[in-house]
Specification:
By secondary structure, the protein is mainly β. It is built from one helix and six strands.
Protein backbone atom coordinates (compact mmCIF):
# COMPACT_ATOMS: atom_id res chain seq x y z
CA UNK A 1 0.00 0.00 0.00
CA UNK A 2 1.17 3.53 -0.78
CA UNK A 3 2.86 5.12 2.26
CA UNK A 4 0.43 8.05 2.01
CA UNK A 5 -2.50 5.66 2.48
CA UNK A 6 -1.27 3.87 5.61
CA UNK A 7 -3.70 5.92 7.73
CA UNK A 8 -6.54 3.88 6.16
CA UNK A 9 -5.33 0.92 8.23
CA UNK A 10 -6.19 2.94 11.37
CA UNK A 11 -9.86 3.08 10.39
CA UNK A 12 -12.39 0.80 12.05
CA UNK A 13 -14.66 -0.57 9.34
CA UNK A 14 -17.80 -2.46 10.35
CA UNK A 15 -18.33 -6.18 9.72
CA UNK A 16 -19.29 -5.40 6.10
CA UNK A 17 -16.10 -3.40 5.52
CA UNK A 18 -17.91 -0.05 5.65
CA UNK A 19 -17.43 3.18 7.58
CA UNK A 20 -19.89 6.11 7.86
CA UNK A 21 -18.80 9.24 6.00
CA UNK A 22 -20.24 12.68 6.61
CA UNK A 23 -20.04 15.24 3.79
CA UNK A 24 -19.79 18.86 4.95
CA UNK A 25 -19.64 22.02 2.86
CA UNK A 26 -16.06 23.25 3.17
CA UNK A 27 -17.07 26.92 2.98
CA UNK A 28 -19.98 27.30 5.40
CA UNK A 29 -19.93 24.05 7.41
CA UNK A 30 -23.40 22.83 6.37
CA UNK A 31 -23.76 19.07 6.86
CA UNK A 32 -24.82 17.85 3.42
CA UNK A 33 -25.23 14.11 3.76
CA UNK A 34 -24.10 10.86 5.32
CA UNK A 35 -23.17 7.82 3.25
CA UNK A 36 -20.94 4.77 3.51
CA UNK A 37 -17.40 4.25 2.29
CA UNK A 38 -15.10 1.26 2.08
CA UNK A 39 -11.36 1.20 1.47
CA UNK A 40 -11.88 1.07 -2.31
CA UNK A 41 -14.13 4.16 -2.33
CA UNK A 42 -11.65 6.03 -0.12
CA UNK A 43 -8.82 5.21 -2.51
CA UNK A 44 -10.88 6.28 -5.56
CA UNK A 45 -11.76 9.53 -3.77
CA UNK A 46 -8.09 10.27 -3.08
CA UNK A 47 -7.02 9.32 -6.62
CA UNK A 48 -9.65 11.40 -8.43
CA UNK A 49 -10.34 14.26 -5.99
CA UNK A 50 -14.07 13.54 -6.36
CA UNK A 51 -15.98 11.66 -3.68
CA UNK A 52 -16.85 8.02 -4.21
CA UNK A 53 -19.07 6.14 -1.79
CA UNK A 54 -20.18 2.53 -1.47
CA UNK A 55 -23.81 1.96 -2.41
CA UNK A 56 -25.29 -0.57 -0.02
CA UNK A 57 -28.47 -0.94 -2.10
CA UNK A 58 -26.58 -1.63 -5.35
CA UNK A 59 -23.49 -3.23 -3.76
CA UNK A 60 -21.17 -1.18 -5.94
CA UNK A 61 -18.87 1.81 -5.97
CA UNK A 62 -20.87 5.06 -6.35
CA UNK A 63 -19.24 8.15 -7.86
CA UNK A 64 -21.38 10.84 -6.23
CA UNK A 65 -23.07 13.02 -8.83
CA UNK A 66 -21.78 11.24 -11.91
CA UNK A 67 -25.29 11.07 -13.42
CA UNK A 68 -26.77 14.28 -11.95
CA UNK A 69 -23.69 16.46 -12.34
CA UNK A 70 -23.78 17.28 -8.60
CA UNK A 71 -20.36 15.88 -7.82
CA UNK A 72 -18.47 16.46 -4.62
CA UNK A 73 -14.89 17.70 -4.89
CA UNK A 74 -13.00 16.73 -1.75
CA UNK A 75 -11.12 19.60 -0.12
CA UNK A 76 -10.17 17.97 3.19
CA UNK A 77 -10.59 14.55 4.79
CA UNK A 78 -10.56 13.76 8.50
CA UNK A 79 -11.28 10.72 10.62
CA UNK A 80 -12.50 10.90 14.20
CA UNK A 81 -10.63 10.03 17.40
CA UNK A 82 -11.98 6.47 17.40
CA UNK A 83 -11.27 5.92 13.71
CA UNK A 84 -14.85 4.87 13.06
CA UNK A 85 -16.22 7.86 11.13
CA UNK A 86 -14.92 9.94 8.23
CA UNK A 87 -15.57 13.64 7.68
CA UNK A 88 -15.26 14.91 4.12
CA UNK A 89 -15.12 18.65 3.60
CA UNK A 90 -16.33 19.11 0.05
CA UNK A 91 -17.21 21.57 -2.65
CA UNK A 92 -20.74 20.57 -3.64
CA UNK A 93 -21.00 21.26 -7.36
CA UNK A 94 -24.44 22.61 -8.27
CA UNK A 95 -25.36 23.11 -4.62
CA UNK A 96 -27.46 19.91 -4.41
CA UNK A 97 -26.32 16.94 -2.31
CA UNK A 98 -29.62 15.14 -1.63
CA UNK A 99 -31.38 12.82 -4.07
CA UNK A 100 -34.57 14.80 -3.32
CA UNK A 101 -33.05 17.89 -4.94
CA UNK A 102 -32.38 19.62 -1.61
CA UNK A 103 -29.03 21.14 -0.75
CA UNK A 104 -28.71 18.92 2.33
CA UNK A 105 -30.28 15.60 3.27
CA UNK A 106 -30.87 17.04 6.75
CA UNK A 107 -34.02 19.11 6.27
CA UNK A 108 -36.47 17.20 8.48
CA UNK A 109 -36.69 19.14 11.73
CA UNK A 110 -38.04 17.76 14.98
CA UNK A 111 -39.94 19.89 17.47
CA UNK A 112 -38.42 19.34 20.90
CA UNK A 113 -39.99 19.88 24.27
CA UNK A 114 -37.19 19.89 26.78
CA UNK A 115 -37.88 19.01 30.39
Amino acid sequence: MNQNLLWIEKLKFNEKGLIPAIAQDYLDGTILMMAWMNSESIQHTLETGEVHYWSRSRSELWHKGVTSGHIQKVKELFYDCDGDTILLKVEQVGGIACHTGARSCFFNGVSLTLV
